[in-house]
Amino acid sequence: MRSSSACAADEPIVTGKRAKKATPTLTRRVKQAVAEWYVLHMLEPSWDGFVEHTQRGWNTGKPPYGYMAEKVAHPVPVDDHVFPRLVGHVVPHLVDGQVAVLRGRR
Description:
Blueprint: H1 22-55, E1 67-73, E2 86-92, H2 96-104
Antiparallel strand pairs: 1-2
């Protein structure tokens, strides 16, 4: 089986005994650490926004049992091809909501 090595665009391609390994290894691992930090940094505020969006009653999918999606005009005027005109706001269901409240009080 032949071995092959992956080379980055910003690393020199030097093979053999004279190949320097310390600096490219350090550079590569620093870049990996920064990339991992960037992913976590982007996930945290996006999750916070999703939680805030849900706590305000906006629905992002099928409403949970005991609730229904009330269709409301989109708050931001946008092109119809990009976003739909209506968005769902979660409100208690008239019939199933009563059953869900009674089951929750046990």
